[in-house]
């Protein structure tokens, strides 16, 4: 009986939070929703993201403090099954961020999908650009790493902590550094 009441309360709380966010998104804009998401309990977060358009698989946990930028909903976010997204990760959703199954993303990792120098004189030389970020299945990304637009990290790869991934990565490989460079291939037969 206690578990049933607990689940009922959790469902009522989720509906209350969701209605509040939907109303505030209409009145104050979607940036308000993005700010409020950083404060949400980890148990509510996945369902709220789904409610605003994200495609998220089963058995996904997302740490608190997650931040989103350049979005009017979360349709550009796809996360597969059995994934972990660490605390305080940053997602630029100008373009698509697609995360496969069995992916572990450590805390404070940043995903950038665009570059835009609109207010700078440099915009004359560097046009605005956006491209998706794709993380294939069974990838590990170490803490405080940055993945830039147009990058695809292939399956079964490991990205070392504090790496800058500015080029696509081969499968079954370890990449480390700024910029991230191939350290070694992973041989699963050994």
From TrEMBL:
CDD domains linked: LbH_MAT_like
EC class (word): transferase
Record Pfam families: Hexapep, Hexapep_2
Superkingdom to which the source organism belongs: Bacteria
EC number: 2.3.1.-
GO molecular function, one term: acyltransferase activity
Keywords, ordered alphabetically: Acyltransferase, Transferase
Designated name of the protein: Acyltransferase
């Amino acid at each position: 009986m206690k578990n049933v009441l607990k689940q009922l309360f959790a469902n009522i709380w989720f509906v209350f939070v969701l209605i509040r966010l939907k109303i505030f998104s209409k009145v104050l804009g979607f940036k308000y929703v993005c700010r409020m998401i950083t404060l949400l309990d980890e148990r509510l977060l996945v369902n709220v993201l789904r409610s605003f358009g994200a495609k998220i698989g089963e058995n996904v946990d997302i740490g608190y403090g997650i931040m989103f930028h350049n979005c009017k909903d979360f349709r550009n976010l796809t996360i597969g099954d059995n994934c972990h997204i660490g605390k305080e990760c940053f997602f630029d959703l100008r373009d698509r961020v697609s995360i496969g199954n069995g992916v572990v993303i450590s805390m404070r990792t940043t995903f950038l999908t665009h570059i835009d120098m609109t207010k700078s004189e440099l915009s004359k030389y560097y046009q605005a650009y956006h491209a998706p970020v794709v993380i294939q299945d069974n990838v590990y990304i170490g803490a405080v790493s940055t993945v830039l637009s147009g990058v695809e990290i292939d399956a079964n790869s490991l990205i070392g902590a504090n790496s800058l991934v500015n080029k696509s990565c081969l499968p079954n490989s370890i990449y480390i550094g700024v910029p991230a460079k191939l350290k070694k291939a992973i041989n699963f037969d050994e």
